[in-house]
Amino acid sequence: MNPTDLTQRPPRSPRSRLGGFAILPRMLDKGRATIAGANGEYKYACPLDERFANFAGIDADALKAQLAEGKGDGEILAWVLENSKTKPNEIEIQAWSIYVANRVPSDIETRGFFNEMQSKIGPKREDIVTWFDMLDLDDYVSFGGKA
Q1: In sequence order, what are the residues at sequence separation of 6 or more whose Cβ sits closer than 8 angstroms to the Cβ of residue 143?
Q2: Tens digit of pLDDT per residue, the chain (147 long)?
Q3: Per residue in 80-91, is it b (16+ CB within 10 Å) or e — as a string?
Q4: 140 alpha-carbon distance from chain centroid
Q5: What 3-state DSSP class applies to 62?
Q6: DSSP structural state of residue 21
Q7: Rounded to whole angstroms, how far apart are CA atoms 1 and 68?
Q8: Contact, 11 vs 32, CB < 8 A?
Q9: CB under 8 Å to 80, separation ≥6 — which residues?
């Protein structure tokens, strides 16, 4: 399996889904790139990845070990579903994915961080509201896009 070189392009958007799970495809890209030493500034098992791992009831290190075996997305999804401690059903997965896709900064300190980040990478963008919006914008700008 050829991992995404995250020094050349970003991982998949956190909005991308696998088995209905938001975040998972991005986490897989970062995990594979980390194993290959091509993760650039991206961090595997960051707080966003941990949010997925906690919901799905899996361990990020155990998932990374599966990635190191060269498993594809479908095989990883099957592993996640089989090894989940929380065993979310399809409706729970959909509801959680919608929830995380619409998360916004929830306190003054976090809002300040969010606003500062936005002022640096997209000061004229009035459509950046959610964390996923910010991650997509940051990925775009980091690889040469103009906000």
Answers
A1: 9, 10
A2: 677 899 999 999 999 999 999 999 999 999 999 999 999 999 999 999 999 999 999 999 999 999 999 999 999 999 999 999 999 999 999 999 999 999 999 999 999 999 999 999 999 999 999 999 999 999 999 998 876
A3: beeeeeeebeee
A4: 15
A5: helix
A6: E
A7: 10
A8: no
A9: 19, 21, 24, 56, 58, 63
Beta strands per DSSP E along 57-129: none
**By CB neighbour count within 10 A (0-12 exposed, 13-18 middle, 19+ buried), where does 117 fall?**
middle
DSSP secondary structure string for all residues of 84-95: -SS---HHHHHH
Nearest residue to 134 (alpha-carbon basis) of 117, 112, 109, 110: 117
Q: pLDDT tens digits for 22-39?
A: 999 999 999 999 999 999
The pTM of the whole model exceeds 0.90: yes
Residue 51 Cα to chain centre, angstroms: 9
* Orientation of helix 90-101 relative to helix 47-56, angle to 10°: 160
Q: pLDDT per residue over 67-76, tens digit each?
A: 999 999 999 9
Asked if 28 and 73 touch (Cβ cutoff 8 Å), the reply is yes
